[in-house]
Amino acid sequence: MRKPDESAGAPLLERLPIAVDRPGLATIATLALVAAALVARFAADPLFPTGFPYVTFFPVVILASALFGARQGLLSGVLGGLLSWYFFIGAPDRFELGSGIATALGFYALVVGTDVLIIHWMQRANAKLAAERERSRALADTRELLFRELQHRVSNNLQVVAALLSLQKRQVGDAAARAALDEASRRMAVIGRISRQLYDPSGRARDVRSLLEPLCADVVDASGRKDVEVRVTCAADEELAPDAAIPMALIVAESVANAIEHGFAGRDGGRIEVELSRGADGGVVVEVRDDGHGVPDGFAIDQQASLGLRIAAMLAEQLRGSFALIGGAGTTARLVLPATS
Question: Which residues cross the membrane (predicted)?
Fold first, then answer.
């Protein structure tokens, strides 16, 4: 049995029996209960017909067993039987023994033993249940700790790779190669940041706003543009499963980076709006709108040299969705995901 101080936050039944580490106090309390039962039996004696010698002692057996354990339950049962035998069975103030009295005492012993045994089994079952619950809680805490450590290490490793690519860029003279390494470094850093904040140990879906807002801010900071404003709009309860949220976040990051690099090239300031909504079929529609230069007529992603746009289109296809750039007053990058995402 667990000590009471070890189960202070447990349900009441799981804290029983109490005072198991203080047997003297438990015995005194049991004796007080037996004495109260004897007084009550004497007080109620005029109200009862002949018989009922144990009527006030049975509740004490149950109460003592539940509160203080099987030993105190048996003690109260023995004392209650002796007191009933002495005062209320046969001639008063003496221990008489006959076949009828022996039968009555035998049935009393059987009932008392059954009560104590059932309560003892229940308390043992409660103790085992509480121990299993504590073990499960400890395993869950360990799993969460290991998961967070794993995520932390994975994110750090991605950040290290991004830093190594950035260092390698300094030793490359070709401008195209430097740009490729710079893009690879940026993407690795973005993936690392997404990985750090996205996954939950329970595998639950994550709130999209809490993912996109810091992500877009990171992309703007990485670009070095202080004159670009990004606003994220989505319903407060919009959620996506991690398997869909990671590609979606990468596509949004590529779209924001593309808007900064091409939409705002050669001009001061700009505004980017990221909006997530539900389509008519229950799917997800993500739009990244900027007020930049826009796209030329006849623009097609599959004919562009931009690796980022091709990656965005490929990720959308993996999610059984679509990605497109739409011209007009600025540019709108539209990602449409089916309802299964």
Answer: 25-44, 50-68, 73-91, 97-119
